Amino acid sequence: MVCLFASCIEEPLTSEETDGATAYMLVRGGNLLSSTDSRDNEINTLRILAFSVTGRCVSNVLYHATLNETIQHPINEGNYDFVFLANEPDSYAIQNALNSVTRYADLRNIKYLESCFDSDVAIPMYQEIKDVNIIRGGGGAQVGDGPVVNPLVLKLERLASRVDIVLEAEEDLTAYFTGVTFSGIPDGIKLTLNDNGTFDRNVTRKYTLTDDAGYFTSVIPNAEQQGRGIVWVRKITRFILPFNNFSPVDDADKAFELTVDMKDRYSPSCKLKIATNGVDGATKDNYTLPFNSALLLTGIIQIPMELNVKVTPWGEEEHDWQMGNYYLNVSEVNVSITDFNGARITFSSNMPKVHVLPNLYVGESGTMLTEKVFNDLVFTPVVNNPWFPQYGTPMFDGKIMRYETSRFSYVYDTESKTGTGYMDILLDEYNEIHDKTFRLILSGEVDGGGKLQREIKVHTRQGGYRFDAIYWAGYYVGAFSRDNETGERIITGQKPRLENTTDLGEWQVWVERGAGDIVLSTTPSFDPAVGTDMPGDAENYPVRPNEFKSHEAGSYVTGRGRVYFRVAWKDKNPNPVIDNGLRQPRYAVICLSHRWSTGWEPSTRIYIRQGEAADYLMTREENIALGPLAGKSRTEASKISVFNLTASGYKNGGEANYYDLSQIKSAEFVKYPSQAGAFFQWTSASHPRRAYHPTNPVVDYSSTNDWDGALEVQPIWDNGTGTGYMWNQKAVSEVCPPGYHRPNDGYTDQVSYNGPYPNFKRFWPTPLIERTTHAGDVADGSNDQVYSKQIEKSEWRQSLALNPVVGELLYGFEAELDVQYGDREGWKIYRYPTSPVFNEDESQEKNIKAKDGFYADGYFDRRPIQKQRIADGTDRYGVSVKTSQVAYRGCVFYNPTTGASVFLPAGGRRESAGGRLMYAGETGYYWTSSASPIFPNSFYNAWAQESRGSFVGSVSTSVSTGNLIRCFRDN
């Protein structure tokens, strides 16, 4: 941080008079701190206090500032002692005390509590500079008898200690290790005093794998560790604690104590010390943790436990490179990423240009174009009418030179001849399952050909597939968080280059609805396990705007090439509680616009939801605008659950082919909206509540006892009268939990036709008959109007469709009548759709508002997308595809007026004959509670909702089919 002093007036300047000052001290942030972790260097506020030679405070101003921001602070000519306080705690009592300082001695009475020092908040910092003589006329400042300087360089010191730990063991402790505990922490520090030995030390902090996963990283033992017999390593990073300084330094009673917490085992512990008597020349033990220091603790877990402690200048490693008078300092030279996260590397130099070379090394010898592997690191412009000309084109304002892409930046000050930069390393066009090491080259260059180059090893791992916007695997269409969730949701998709060019495809995202509630960021996830089958908890990875991209403040982000950004809610859901402790959900909408060609720039909306309570998609009692119910009130709309149904056995990780539920209303909701859950037949004579595995087996079940065949009597959901029916199937097959029910699609005490019926043509024997019964007899449309009015009773259509439509939507279906039709066996009957065609173009589709794609719910967006072969031999895709926790892309249904949304995954179905798995990862089939009329070769049918990219609507299907269930809330 840099201060520039100037003065133009002679009379003394009091704190009340500074508003009228005509001279200023300029404060500017710079690359002054040695840590390469941007969080360690974060500055949010800076308080400047000036004291006269008598100790009186003559200036006390708090600024909101960042590390690289210039501040003008008014000050008069004269001699002062300065105190600079950065990141003062967000505490009314502390800030009030600081605002009330009248003399230097007042600072000694101000206490920063232990809670002010934490990994989640900016670290409080402090510096005093005494005997500063401000020279009038902008002449600079003189500290003591030193030379006159302008500017004056600040070197703020953190009032904290950072602790990083590497734990080793000679046995695999994965099943036992649960976290670490620090005890004996002082309850605070006092300003201007570097000794807090008199403070109480009763504070304990506990960090667990469950609640604090972001601190912990599993590491594969290196060759040196393996040579010592080490088989288990855990790296634990960035604990921020108040400093612990006292005298005498060997007072063990004042030491921090570290305990390694074990489940079902003794938890070893030891006192932290930075020097041991008799080791490396030390004459006594030293249990202090000085301020502005970082400690790297390495220990082997044993009893008694010992830790080797190395005190470093706030950072484990230094990656400096120097040539003559030039340097290129890099924060990391060896990083690991998956295709779901990234690595951020910061660097500094005094060379005018620093950039990533266009070629990289693969392994030990091969080469590739950098742009063919990583996202937008090479400084290359978009030639054809770029949206963002600053990316790939040098920008110079007369003082500052900028070299930027959407993932790289180097900013060079031509006056101070210093520069800083960063890069976010993210996989892009190299899109295949792999585990490889690439070597990037970061090159610093000066006029005349002088170069400094650093090699950066990037270990990359990809366990699944990344997709372009193809039919069954498009961009993300929505995201979901529970009431109390504010963690990252990852939105990504491969972006082809601009059509018929080599230009990277540009994209931008902005918040259309909910701008004050949603935060966007292009900073990649730093969860080391995201993109594997065992990712970290998204709640441990908050989303903050990318601090290196000044134009991205949280509601707007930009990029080139692969689309990758993160989205999160800023706060927990503040809406009122409406349902058993659950809050009224709230909604947001973000827009993604991208360049496909020089003349085509499509955009799409992504629907964001916070809240797991069932909610209305379409507003109950509103008037319907279009279609057969135009002008009528939406009386049947209900609240829709967010989750599919499953059996408790599957929810708890079971993998049996099926589970029989012991009683009605005993199924459970899955954990995430994208999870398929279990398949259920509409009803069954033998196993009316059997929950079938969502993926296994793929082909037919092994016996008829495992899969129930067709019914020979028409089942009806509710009670009724008459023969030839299986009445009141609700009493044996309703599996929705208490307070929920299987939604209807019209009547539940009789067959619901819901549109023109019969809807068949006879093709053979000739002549063709345009309308027949399912058996091929001539039929007419005399009942069409009566049947169509039945959708007035449809809970499903009124709840899900903007403008409910009649009939069923299906591809043309041709059948040859089977043996049950006697001498008509072999007749060809065509079944035709009776609903309007669903239009994938949202602007043209007037009835059902739905979009097909991926859903970021903290589960699907954190795991590799894997290939799944279904019963007909085709391949589809999902996550966790070989387990009962499988999740898929699907359809998000939305209300264009309110922004409300709900997601239905495309879990497929099991065929009525034998239970073969079909259409998983492509189509979602969801039961209603309404029986539907018969069609050729079928026994008895029920209405279901079918949804995929170009096909969203109601269909009639056999009750022996295995479909998914989405419950509605009882009104």
Describe this structure in words.
The protein has 971 residues and is mainly β. The chain is built from six helices and 70 strands. The chain has an eight-stranded mixed beta sheet, with no helix packed on it. Strands 3, 4, 6, 8, 9, 10 and 12 form a seven-stranded antiparallel beta sheet that branches. A seven-stranded antiparallel beta sheet has the order 23-24-26-33-32-31-30, with no helix packed on it. Strand 62 and strand 63 form a beta hairpin. The radius of gyration is 34 Å and the shape is elongated. The N terminus is likely disordered.
The amount of beta strand, in percent, is 35-45%
Kindly name the structural category. mainly beta
Annotation field: number of helices: 6
Largest sheet: 8 strands, mixed
Mean pLDDT: 88
Helix content, binned percent: under 10%
Question: Any idea what the radius of gyration is?
Answer: 34 Å
